[in-house]
Design goal:
Layout lengths: L1 H16 L17 E5 L2 E6 L5 H10 L1 E10 L5 E2 L4 E5 L7 E2 L1 H8 L17 E4 L5 E4 L2 H29 L6 E2 L4 E9 L6 E5 L4
Antiparallel strand pairs: 1-2, 2-3, 3-10, 4-9, 5-11, 6-10, 7-8
Helix pairs in contact: 3-4
Length: 204
């Protein structure tokens, strides 16, 4: 009976510690892009569905989509993403591109949420001895703070990786020179995976 309870305890611990999720590096340069659009010598390739676990849940909840994009400028002049190069949907409506620091603050995991594990502190494990007597072990005193700390650390490390990649892959306002290809990540306010199109303005 004691062994069964201990096994149950460790199973519960594993389940609880999976609450916070890690962050899987995206690396826009390594993606196999399957969607594309071309306009006036500029080619857009893009991919949705980049995030995992808790970050995917936040995308759905907040109505934000993270998109990896690849822009190739085969026109005869340098162009800036966000000025001459813009994105629209199929119906022509221009897409609102969020600042990447806003994307991060919207989709990041909330570390403080895991303080709720401290509610496990009063839990005791009761063991029945062979002679019929029982003993109680205050496992919650260690379990609550342990689970809380582990999940906070895991969420914080994942958020740090997420933020670093967003900042390093920020495309908005980037100058894409003639003949150059650039990769990046953008966040858009959207609830669906609609097709993206290029809108090129003010070509001379």
């Amino acid at each position: 009976m004691r062994i069964i309870k201990i096994i149950f305890l460790f199973t519960a611990i594993i389940s609880l510690t999976s609450c916070a999720s890690g962050y899987k590096i995206i690396e826009p340069k390594t993606i196999n892009y399957v969607s594309s659009n071309e306009n006036n010598g500029v080619k857009l390739e893009y991919k949705y569905d980049l995030l995992n676990k808790k970050y995917t849940d936040k995308e759905v909840k907040k109505g934000v989509k993270l998109v990896a994009i690849k822009l190739t400028n085969n026109s005869n002049q340098d162009l800036m993403f966000g000025r001459e190069i813009k994105l629209t949907y199929e119906n022509g409506n221009e897409i609102f591109i969020m600042e990447n620091d806003k994307v991060f603050s919207t989709l990041k995991q909330k570390s403080a949420y895991h303080l709720f594990y401290l509610l496990l502190t009063p839990i005791n494990l009761t063991l029945i001895n062979s002679n019929g007597s029982s003993s109680s072990i205050p496992i919650g005193l260690g379990l609550g703070p342990l689970l809380s700390g582990m999940n906070i650390v895991k969420a914080s490390l994942a958020n740090k990786k997420f933020k670093n990649e967003l900042m390093e892959s920020d495309m908005y306002g980037s100058l894409i020179k003639e003949g150059e290809t650039k990769y990046g990540l953008i966040g858009i306010k959207a609830n669906t995976f609609d097709s993206l199109k290029l809108k090129i303005e003010d070509l001379q």
